[in-house]
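Researcher: Structure prediction, please.
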Amino acid sequence: MQRDIAPQAKNSVTLESLVGAMLLSAAFLVYGAYGLYQNDLLLPTRVGIQHLQSIDAVAFYAVVLIAVPTNAIKLREWMKHGDGNSNAFKTADFYSKLSVYAYIVFLIIDIFS
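Model: Predicted structure follows.
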């Protein structure tokens, strides 16, 4: 006996939410660039404001520069195919995770040096 399989729901992300995400990403990039220009990147946290200066700010901004476009590619591929099996999605996911892991390693080295 063959079971009826319900059709998979199509991913529906509204244009307004996509534009909002793009504007928020652009705002993060501009804010980070301004923080690098001032040599004091302020990050609000639960326990107060974290100040990143010099190489720490550059490393954090590099992760943001990699994460924003790769996440945009992942979102586009997810909307197009409905899953994470496309090559573009897997490549973007790899570079996004690689940048975060590299930043974590950088922080560990920076703490102990």
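Model: Residues 15-112 form one domain.
Researcher: Thanks, that helps.
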